[in-house]
Design goal:
The chain has helices spanning 2-21, 38-47, 108-117; strands at residues 28-29, 51-57, 69-73, 79-80, 85-90, 97-99, 121-128, 133-141, 144-146, 151-153, 157-164, 168-170, 186-188. By secondary structure, the protein is an alpha+beta fold. The protein has two domains: 26-90, 2-Layer Sandwich (Trypsin Inhibitor V, Chain A), CATH 3.30.10; 97-173 and 183-188, Trypsin Inhibitor V, Chain A (2-Layer Sandwich). The strands form five sheets. It has a four-stranded mixed beta sheet, covered by helices on one side. Strands 2-5-3 form a three-stranded mixed beta sheet, covered by helices on one side. The longest helix is centred in the N-terminal third of the chain and has 20 residues, at 2-21. Pfam families: PASTA (PF03793). Residues 175-189 have a biased composition (Acidic residues). This is Penicillin-binding protein. Residues 167-189 are annotated as: Disordered.
Length: 189
């Protein structure tokens, strides 16, 4: 009989201890941290006895301020215990840089979707005399010539210089000593 009473008292004491150490029944509502800066997040979570950990930076989203929270786990409105970690995804400072593909001598029909799929915008389309109609001769950004392998920020506007199909072709000057092209370098078809 004494053993049964001892087991019951021990069980009751264990349950009380578990309730106390696990904060049974105490819940904190997770606040909405979207669009808040890291310093605002830190202040808000400290007031609620919660912690945070930054998981990652996502792709830049212009709808959110730079370095602000764009996603959180658990979501706002969920209930958690004190000292729980809230996992955050932050908006980076800007668009990432993207490598310029080699589109020289590709058709406009090939170049435009390739550039758009990489996140670039198509700017001004201009034409130069060339044997191939709508073939890409140059890529430019803000008036500057860009080469395959260069990097530009995603959403940059790229201007295309295309061949007009007029039948003449000008080879680029290969030798840096030459200053002018001669008529011998041009072919008429």
């Amino acid at each position: 009989m004494l053993a049964i009473i001892f087991v019951v008292v021990l069980g009751y004491a264990a349950m009380q201890w578990l309730d106390y150490t696990t904060n049974q029944g105490e819940r904190i509502e997770v606040p909405n941290l979207a669009e808040l800066s890291l310093s605002e997040v830190e202040t808000m979570l400290k007031e609620k006895d919660l912690r945070y950990e930054i998981l990652d930076s996502a792709n830049f989203n212009p709808d959110y301020p730079r370095f602000s929270v764009i996603e959180q786990v658990p979501k706002a409105g969920k209930f958690v215990k004190e000292n729980r970690k809230i996992y955050l995804t932050l908006n980076p400072s800007g668009y990432r840089k993207v490598l310029i593909p080699d589109l020289i001598r590709r058709t406009r029909r090939q170049a435009e979707p390739t550039l758009k799929s990489l996140g670039f915008e198509i700017g001004e389309i201009t034409y130069k005399p060339d044997i191939a109609e709508d073939a890409v001769l140059e890529l430019r950004h803000n008036g500057e010539l860009i080469e395959p392998g260069d990097e530009l920020m995603k959403t940059s506007k790229i201007d295309l210089v295309l061949g007009d199909g007029s039948g003449s072709y000008s080879r680029p000057v290969e030798d840096s000593v030459e200053t002018e092209q001669t008529n011998e370098d041009q072919f008429d078809f």
